[in-house]
Amino acid sequence: MHFASAALALAALTFAAAPAAVAADTPNPVADAKAFKKYFTDKFPKVKLEDFVNGPYSMDEGLHRQWQEKEQFPPYEFALEKGKEMFSKPFKNGKSYEDCFPNKGIGIRQNYPYFDEKEGKVVTLELALNRCREANGEPPFSYVKDEMAALTAYMAFTSRGKPFDIKIPNDPRALQAYQAGKEYFYTRRGQLNFSCATCHVQSGGERIRAEVLAPALGILNAMPIYRSEWSGMGTTSRRFTTCNSQIRGVPLSPQDDEYRNVEYYLSYVSNGLPISGPGARP
Description:
Blueprint: H1 3-15, H2 29-43, H3 61-72, H4 77-88, E1 114-116, E2 121-123, H5 125-135, H6 146-157, H7 172-186, H8 196-202, E3 207-208, E4 211-212, E5 225-227, E6 232-234, H9 236-246, H10 257-268, E7 279-281
Parallel strand pairs: 5-7
Antiparallel strand pairs: 1-2, 3-4, 5-6
Helix pairs in contact: 1-2, 4-6, 7-10
C-alpha cells in the first residue's frame, strides 16, 4: 500500500468508529475494535485473524517457518522456568502471588489490563504484580528488567490460547481511559514526529532496514517477548519506553497512566485474539 493511501486508510480507521448519529468524538470501543480488525484483515487478506498474534512471523511463509523453527527451542524458555519458580516461592510472610489474584493467578492473563472502578484507573498485570509484592512486604521489581518479564512470561503461558477478554465497565472514567489510550496511540511525538500508529498501523508488515514492523492487531497478545535485538526478555513497559526512544521522543515512566491507557486500548481492540505469550521477536 502506498504511503498516501495508507494515510487515508489510517484517518478512516481513526474516525470510522463513530456512527453518523453520534458525535465524531464520542468514544465507541465496539465499533473501534470492529474497524481495527477490518483494517488489518483487509490489508493482509491471507493472514488468519488469530495469526496476527505472531506479529512479523505472520506476514509471510518464510517468516512463519522461522517462527515454527524457533518454537522448537524457544529462546524465552529460561524465563518461563525462572518465572514459574519465582511465582511458586512464598514471600517472607508466608503468602505468595497466588493470594493476590483470582484463580490463584493461573490462566488470567487475558483479563489484564482491567479498569479498577474503586481506584478509577487502569491496572495492568505488571502493576498488579508489584502491588502484590509491596502489600506483602516485598520490594517492587523494575518494570523493564528480567524478574518482571519472567513472572509475566509464566502467567502468560498459563493463558495461552485463551482469547483477550478486556472489559470496559459502565463507568465514564473507563471510557475516558480507553479514549485517552487511543489518542496517545495515534498522536505524533518525538523528533521523528511518529505516532505508535505510524509504525504499527500505516507501516505494519513493512520492512524498516532488516526488521518487519509488527501489525498493531494482536501486538500485546505475545507479551512479554524475547528479542534477539535485546538478547533477552522485555516487558510491555520496556516495549513502550523503547518505542518512544526509537522515535527520539522522551519516554514516560513505566506504568505511567498514559502507558496504562494505551495498553488498555490496544488490548481491547484485540479482544477475541488468543494469548500467545511469551513470544519471540527478531
